[in-house]
């Protein structure tokens, strides 16, 4: 049985701020050596050259090194998954997952939060967007499930990943070895890396059969209901964080999930919160949550049909502001209107992550 989990959301007050993590460690809430993973939003442009992800990564790892006993190499293997871009009301923040001594956690026979992490094998640039990447990610997800003590895929409610995208350097590397890549548009490769990873998660959890190359990033009927995939230039393999529930592990927290059917589907967010174990009225309000919701984690996508609920929008035709930023701001506003807190995790590029034009929603609740 893995150790129980403590999970906390902390603000990020500047691009290099990790003081919230330091305070949790100094206050005895978390042990630096027990931090398993961090999932956070940074304030950059969310694109290929978003340096704020790198700055946050360095700041948080420096705290873990300074306040713990792990070496720099050991801390480098801790998954820190940063999603860039806090458009609209979204606020920079991080959610920190750590194990705690079982003797200090409330005992319970009910399902309680468990987290497993894994680093996949190296993903070569020529494999991004292709079946080889699907297979690599699926193997990593299965490994992370084992470390979380989760046997049944139905007990997995959220899989957060960070994978490599294509840059000019990695494209040239592939070409130097006589290989081609799925695209030479580096921003497009972000979407493709995310979607391919989502299919790997879906395969690992038995949601779909392994897809052929022709269906990757094209067949929108294929998706995972729990995948949340991000990509960047910081790494050359998949960082995988599997979040689910295990009976008997103990602790205060529980995970749940749902899907947003479209960009305005606030009910999908409420469904995820209910799935995490909170008893809510039929038509809930933000005030019904109290302080029991830790965070929600949402993927979003501009509907490829260019409309929401029958009304046309111009996100996909806008040459001034990329649709990534527009849909993120929109869904961030919907999510914050539910939670009452702008520090919610909303990430874009959701192909194969929830239904087309919508996205996955995970929630973590504090059951006390």
From TrEMBL:
Region (RU C): 253-368
Database matches in Gene3D superfamilies: Cyanuric acid hydrolase/Barbituras, RU C, Cyanuric acid hydrolase/Barbiturase, RU A, Cyanuric acid hydrolase/Barbiturase, RU B
Entry comment, domain topic: The monomer structure is formed from three repeating units (RUs) that share the same structure as one another. The monomer and the active site possess nearly threefold rotational symmetry, to the extent that the active site possesses three potential Ser-Lys catalytic dyads, but one of the 3 active site surfaces varies in composition suggesting it is involved in confering substrate specificity.
EC number: 3.5.2.1
Regulation: Inhibited by cyanuric acid.
Similarity annotation: Belongs to the cyclic amide hydrolase (CyAH) family.
Feature type site, description Important for substrate specificity: 324
Source organism: Actinomadura monticuli
Record-linked InterPro entries: AtzD/Barbiturase, AtzD/Barbiturase_RUA, AtzD/Barbiturase_RUB, AtzD/Barbiturase_RUC
Transmembrane segments: none
Subunit relationships: Homotetramer.
Region of interest (RU A), ranges: 1-103
Pathway: Pyrimidine metabolism; uracil degradation via oxidative pathway; malonate and urea from uracil: step 2/3
Reactions catalysed, as given in the entry: barbiturate + H2O = 3-oxo-3-ureidopropanoate
Keywords: Hydrolase, Magnesium, Metal-binding
Chain's role: Responsible for the hydrolysis of barbituric acid (2,4,6-trihydroxy-1,3-pyrimidine), an intermediate in the oxidative catabolism of pyrimidines. Catalyzes the hydrolytic opening of the pyrimidine ring of barbituric acid to yield ureidomalonic acid.
Binding positions (substrate): 53, 83-84, 194, 230-231, 328, 347-348
Annotated residues for binding of Mg(2+): 301, 350, 353-355, 358
Name by which UniProt lists this protein: Barbiturase
